[in-house]
User: Which sequence fits this backbone?
């Protein structure tokens, strides 16, 4: 890994650790960045509002992670709060020099700006598919404008190729794309500052231009490859959300690419999806556990998973809005998301399920308000 990428990764991890210190282990952040598909990881992402970190770098190895953690300890930006050498990274906190360094790095890399637009659980997969479809459509329209129907598509995914061909099948539809795609793209780009406009434009492949990869763009601008990848992911995620949610009629064509998402797979695990369908029939958690021959705790985990993914459900059956508010107030007052501490504070009137569900629902809604 190049030095500037390592430094950026250090800053990114330090930024995440600042949120988790005293509450979780550094390993929990590793599982987020790696994109581990586990209920506890999703809850941590949600509870600590670290949606941007989920599956941000799925390629990251445990060896690289441990190397970075050792480096943070060596530079005394992070210190352990456990004297046991065996559990050297089990408890931690940022030092004053760590906070000072983080403050500098956040400004240099504009971390808050880029991370705020990313949601690895709800948006990244759809935004990535949207990006591939836009890039292939740009290439196709550019070639058609030059009356060239024989070219090598830059996107090798056969399903995406089929979708683009389907959109251009009718003569009237093809004419609409030929006439209007550039206008809609420039409308989106016009909202970016000049340097970002250039990075955005350099990705496009057309009849007279070969698009650059994120690595090539990073080298062109003399910046970290990982930073460039994060910036582009943030831009495409923001663009996807803006286009999809726009109701003014400005993005009639691009919205068609939002509708071509990889669905039909459920946004939650298949087992949780089965539970979800049974809940839609107003079955109780106990009844579902009995019928499916699974533990009640498993059904409760499924319920939390649904809340984390913002699936519509009658959650008030288990926790009311005033109870959600009360749990959040207790969490803010104690400055913790630890279930045991919250349970001790709230007493017997609140079950662990209600506390978990309240945190999940409040966390999911808070990201939508950003």
Assistant:
């Amino acid at each position: 890994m190049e030095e500037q990428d390592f430094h950026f990764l250090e800053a990114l991890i330090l930024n995440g650790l600042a949120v988790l210190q005293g509450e979780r282990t550094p390993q929990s952040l590793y599982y987020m960045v790696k994109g581990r598909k586990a209920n506890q990881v999703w809850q941590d992402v949600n509870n600590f509002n670290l949606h941007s970190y989920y599956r941000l770098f799925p390629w990251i190895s445990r060896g690289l992670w441990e190397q970075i953690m050792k480096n943070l300890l060596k530079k005394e930006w992070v210190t352990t709060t456990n004297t046991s050498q065996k559990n050297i990274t089990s408890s931690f906190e940022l030092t004053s020099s760590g906070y000072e360094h983080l403050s500098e790095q956040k400004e240099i890399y504009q971390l808050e700006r880029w991370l705020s637009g990313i949601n690895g659980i709800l948006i990244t997969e759809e935004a990535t598919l949207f990006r591939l479809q836009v890039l292939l459509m740009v290439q196709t329209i550019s070639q058609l404008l030059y009356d060239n129907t024989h070219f090598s598509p830059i996107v090798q995914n056969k399903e995406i190729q089929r979708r683009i061909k389907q959109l251009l099948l009718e003569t009237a539809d093809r004419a609409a794309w030929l006439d209007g795609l550039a206008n809609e793209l420039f409308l989106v780009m016009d909202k970016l500052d000049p340097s970002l406009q250039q990075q955005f434009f350099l990705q496009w492949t057309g009849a007279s231009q070969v698009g650059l990869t994120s690595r090539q763009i990073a080298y062109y601008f003399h910046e970290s490859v990982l930073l460039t990848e994060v910036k582009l992911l943030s831009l495409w995620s923001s663009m996807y959300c803006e286009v999809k949610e726009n109701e003014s009629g400005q993005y009639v064509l691009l919205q068609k690419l939002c509708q071509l998402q990889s669905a039909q797979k459920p946004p939650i695990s298949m087992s949780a999806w089965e539970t979800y369908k049974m809940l839609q029939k107003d079955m109780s958690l106990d009844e579902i556990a009995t019928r499916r021959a699974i533990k009640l705790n498993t059904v409760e985990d499924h319920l939390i998973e649904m809340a984390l993914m913002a699936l519509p459900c009658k959650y008030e059956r288990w926790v009311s809005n005033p109870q959600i508010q009360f749990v959040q107030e207790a969490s803010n007052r104690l400055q913790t998301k630890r279930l045991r501490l919250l349970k001790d504070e709230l007493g017997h009137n609140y079950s662990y399920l209600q506390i978990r569900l309240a945190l999940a629902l409040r966390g999911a809604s808070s990201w939508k308000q950003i």
Remarks:
- Residues 83-89, 366-370 have pLDDT under 50 and may be disordered.
